[in-house]
Structure to design on (158 residues):
């Protein structure tokens, strides 16, 4: 049994946002309080993985070291009145951890293909390349149309 057309369309919309947008708002938690920050991100080959780079001395890295649950909000707003009709906001729900050393080089290239201007930062000794293992997505369009895509075990990151 194949993927339903509605789910295929949703997956395409998610893929398009992940490919066309460069920045997202990463949410972490510390002592029960949310903390958000802008991050550059790059998507993996599947919808199941998203990568971002951060220095190990940042609050977001410390927060994720204590609680790996995270969300990443990605949107295509243009700060124009038409956004109320046209903008889409995608939230990826998952867990984030530093990429293992043996996978660093290959995944740094995935990240740098989208963000070549961050090469010096990404290759610096204090930088951690992190992987969000996405469990589900929530896509909001027209500020009230909400659909979700739950990734099953066949989509989860290894």
């Amino acid at each position: 049994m194949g993927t339903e057309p509605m789910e295929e369309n949703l997956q395409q919309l998610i893929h398009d946002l992940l490919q066309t947008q460069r920045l997202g708002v990463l949410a972490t938690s510390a002592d029960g309080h949310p903390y958000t920050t802008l991050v550059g991100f790059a998507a993996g080959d599947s919808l199941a993985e998203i990568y971002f780079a951060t220095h190990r001395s940042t609050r977001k890295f410390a927060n994720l070291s204590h609680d790996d649950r995270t969300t990443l909000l990605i949107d295509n707003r243009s700060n124009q009145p038409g956004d109320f009709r046209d903008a889409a906001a995608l939230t990826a729900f998952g867990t984030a951890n530093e990429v293992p050393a043996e996978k660093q080089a290959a995944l740094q290239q995935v990240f740098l293909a989208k963000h070549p201007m961050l090469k010096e930062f990404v290759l610096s000794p204090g930088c951690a390349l992190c992987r969000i293992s996405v469990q589900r997505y929530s896509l909001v369009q027209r500020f009230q149309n909400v659909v979700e895509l739950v990734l099953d075990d066949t989509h989860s990151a290894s």
